[in-house]
Design brief:
75% helix, 9 helices, mainly alpha
């Protein structure tokens, strides 16, 4: 993940990735993932292990999409800085699964699971700072949702 200047081809690839995110089923998957907030490894694995369920398909679709996008960065097909500036949702996705990643890899006997996302997000100080800010925002939103839920009861 070098510091080369973004090219026209990089821009076209970013726009293609954006178009893919707008596909109808992908939007449903992203909506599910946006609302899915596993509080424990067991809660996450309940969905991961629910093969045949819509939630399992959505979870796999979102994780697979962002792992694919990250692999483009890791392998040099997409400019890393441009990706960081435009693919912020990857930080959101990684922040949700990061607390459980080691356990997931161990359980599935898959040490490479989500390794490209991890390389992109953990690969530079700037990317780690973005992740920290995302985690702070997610914690604030969780508090707001909790407060709203208490008001509703």
């Amino acid at each position: 993940m070098g510091n080369s200047k973004a090219t026209h081809a990089d821009a076209e690839l970013i726009l293609k990735l954006y178009d893919l995110r707008r596909e109808a089923v992908m939007r449903q998957a992203r909506d599910f993932f946006g609302m899915f907030s596993p509080a424990s490894f067991e809660e996450l694995m309940a969905v991961m292990g629910a093969f045949g369920s819509k939630e399992n398909a959505y979870l796999r679709q979102v994780l697979g999409y962002w792992e694919m996008a990250a692999s483009l960065v890791v392998h040099g097909a997409l400019n890393a800085e441009l990706a960081q500036d435009t693919l912020g949702e990857m930080n959101f996705v990684y922040a949700k699964v990061r607390p459980f990643l080691k356990q997931m890899r161990n359980l599935m006997k898959s040490p490479e699971f989500l390794q490209n996302i991890e390389k992109v997000i953990e690969g530079t100080p700037e990317a780690r700072e973005r992740l920290a800010r995302m985690q702070e925002r997610m914690a604030e939103f969780a508090k707001m949702r909790e407060a709203a839920a208490k008001k509703g009861t």
